[in-house]
Amino acid sequence: MLTSWDSFDRYVLIDKSIEYIYPLWASAQGLTEWFLRESTYIMKNDNPRAPAELYQKGDRYVWKWHQWDAEGRGEVLEQNGVDLIKFSFESSIVHVHLERFDDGRTLVKLTQSEIADSDEARLNIYCGCGSGWTFWLTNLKAYCEHGILLNEQGMNLRGIFDGYKLVNT
User: Fold this and answer.
1) 3-class secondary structure, 71
2) What's the CATH number where 142 sits?
3) Residue 155 within any structural domain of the chain
């Protein structure tokens, strides 16, 4: 079987409700609790959205990571306020869907698609983002279920570990 390089899926089951998890994905404040150092959403009228406010379709974002100097920029393509988020990311599309289990747990399903057909995209997006999302979904589970973060926030590790070596950035 040949590998399809144009998309990948990552799932994690979290022992929390959709109502608890959704704002952690759908607001700047939520994203900075478990994922980002800084997150800003800009509305269509060019005004910044309040940190705790759920972002909306058409909002643009600027993301800044812990231990990484590059900024991520993109646009919210879809958001239903309940269980679905879709945004542009690294010249591709990320789709997050939350699925409720009967016992109250939530399955977080993340798909990154429309990955370009190039060696650079295969390395940086398919492999790099694929392993990155695996870590960040694990971090989200640890945060939601145990109140801990697995990523390094205190010590500046920039320049010490280049490339894809450090797993807890």
Assistant:
1) strand
2) 3.30.530.20
3) no
Residue 6 is given by DSSP the state: T
Based on the structure, what is the number of domains in the chain?
1
Residue 161 scores a pLDDT above 90: no
Distance of alpha carbon 89 from alpha carbon 121, whole angstroms: 12
164 within domain boundaries: no
Domain that holds residue 115: 8-146
Look at residue 100 in the predicted model and tell me its pLDDT. 97
Q: β-strand 71-79 against 60-64: which pairing, if any?
A: antiparallel
Phi, psi of 74 (to 5 degrees): -170, -165
Distance CA 46, CA 44 (A): 5
pLDDT in tens, 51-73: 999 999 999 999 998 877 789 99
- Whether 163 is in a domain gets the answer no
Q: For the residues of 73-113, what is the DSSP string, one character each?
A: EEEEEEE-SSSEEEEEETTEEEEEEEEE-TTS-EEEEEEEE
Domain-located, residue 32 = yes
E strand or H helix that includes residue 25: helix 18-26
Q: What is the pTM of this model?
A: 0.91
Distance CA(154)–CA(82), nearest Å, equals 33
Beta strand 8-14 pairing with 106-113:
antiparallel
